[in-house]
From TrEMBL:
GO molecular function: ligase activity; ubiquitin protein ligase activity; zinc ion binding
Upper lineage: Eukaryota, Metazoa, Chordata, Craniata, Vertebrata
Broad class of enzyme this protein falls into: transferase
Cross-referenced InterPro entries: Deltex_C (IPR039396), Deltex_C_sf (IPR039399), Deltex_fam (IPR039398), Znf-RING_euk (IPR027370), Znf_RING (IPR001841), Znf_RING/FYVE/PHD (IPR013083)
CDD domains per UniProt: Deltex_C
GO CC terms in record: cytoplasm
Cellular localization per UniProt: Cytoplasm
Name of the protein in its database record: E3 ubiquitin-protein ligase
UniProt keyword list: Cytoplasm, Ligase, Metal-binding, Notch signaling pathway, Repeat, Transferase, Zinc, Zinc-finger
Length: 369
């Protein structure tokens, strides 16, 4: 095999032909035993030097090349396979170029304290949250009364909560609310119609924070809050640019949530929960839109909507802190996992995700009030 590659590439790749000749036993490459013996004498370093020498000649001569990645890796098998692949492809007359895979860049270069700046227009550089108790004193019926209109003649359709006809009593079989099962109400903003019995049961099974979210269109009534565990959020400017945002510096956000015990609003009250991967570093461009996103993220943090306790989609671990449907960029200088830059649509996408949680520019005015 090595001799065959030498005949085809003798003019342009002397390193290949000479290495093949030195590694071939008497009898030539035509013998099966000789071929196996010659390949057996080439260890990992020999294969890499042989393939790299050929690729340098091909690149210098301007020949179009086919990249073979994973030259380096945690296992010695991957580099060896890459080298063997290069030899086999060159023996078949195919040009080969061995390249190194791109590197994952999660964090920026080191930054001293003197280089860190506060963000203009945003007071402080750190916020802590504690467990906020739900507002008490109002029954679920009193809360929902603000968002509903009674319907005397229900439409001929199903209630999307219990899937029974609206003209029939509610099919909810759980703990019975203090509402007649045949009453029907319409939400004032989106005009979707449900059994009052079903809406009260849905509210009782939620966070009981005085807000309601339509199960059909997700329209939010009141101020939605979440069940994020206590923690700390830091934010500041660092003097480095993100890929795709070379014209501005970077906003770095650091979330830190310690493990603890689940409260009554969590999936398993009284059971401990884990908090993997903290502190978590996230990045935004220090542009006008980037600062707008940060301000809305601060509202989401105060409303306990950025994290939740549940089952991790990556590890399968239950009773652990997970992201809560508001995506963050956790890669600083690469985008190998899809959580980095450049991403021209990210800022618009995260604004839409925040709006789905009821957090818009109007929320900023509400927080000030």
């Amino acid at each position: 095999l090595a001799a065959q590659g030498g005949r085809r590439q003798a003019a342009s790749t002397p390193a290949l032909s000479s290495a093949g000749a030195s590694g071939s036993p008497p009898g030539g490459a035509g013998s099966g035993k000789g071929s196996r013996a010659s390949l057996g004498t080439l260890n990992r370093s020999h294969l890499q030097r042989l393939a790299i020498a050929q690729s340098r000649v091909l690149i210098a001569s301007g020949v179009p090349t086919v990249p073979v990645k994973n030259l380096t890796g945690s296992s010695p098998v991957n580099p060896a396979l890459a080298g063997i692949t290069g030899i086999l492809m060159s023996a078949a007359g195919l040009p080969v170029c061995l390249t190194r895979p791109p590197k994952l860049v999660l964090h920026p270069p080191p930054v001293s304290k003197s280089e860190i700046q506060s963000i203009p227009g945003i007071s402080h550089s750190c916020r802590k949250t504690t467990k906020k108790q739900a507002k008490k004193g109002k029954t679920p019926e009193e809360v929902l009364k603000k968002y509903l209109q009674k319907v005397r003649h229900p439409p001929d359709e199903d209630c999307t909560i219990c899937m029974e006809r609206l003209s029939a009593p509610s099919g909810y079989k759980g703990p019975q609310p203090a509402v007649k099962p045949d009453l029907v109400g319409k939400l004032v903003k989106c005009s979707h119609v449900f059994h009052l019995h079903c809406l009260v049961a849905m509210y009782n099974n939620g966070n009981k924070d005085g807000s309601l979210q339509c199960p059909t269109c997700k329209t939010i009534y009141g101020v939605k809050t979440g069940t994020q565990p206590p923690g700390k959020m830091e934010y500041h400017i660092i003097p480095h640019a993100l890929p795709g945002h070379a014209d501005c510096k970077t906003i770095r956000i650091i979330y830190n949530i310690p493990p603890g015990v689940q409260g009554p609003e969590h999936p398993n009250p009284g059971k401990s929960f884990t908090a993997r991967g903290f502190p978590r570093h996230c990045y935004l461009p220090d542009s006008e839109k980037g600062r707008k996103v940060l301000k809305l993220l601060l509202v989401a943090w105060d409303r306990r909507l950025i994290f939740a306790i549940g089952t991790s989609s990556t590890t399968g671990e239950s009773d652990t802190v997970i992201w809560n449907e508001i995506h963050h960029k956790t890669e600083f200088g690469s985008n190998l996992t899809g959580h980095g830059y450049p991403d021209i649509n990210y800022l618009d996408n995260v604004l839409a995700e925040l709006a789905a949680q009821g957090i818009t520019e109007e929320s900023l005015a509400q927080e000030k009030d």
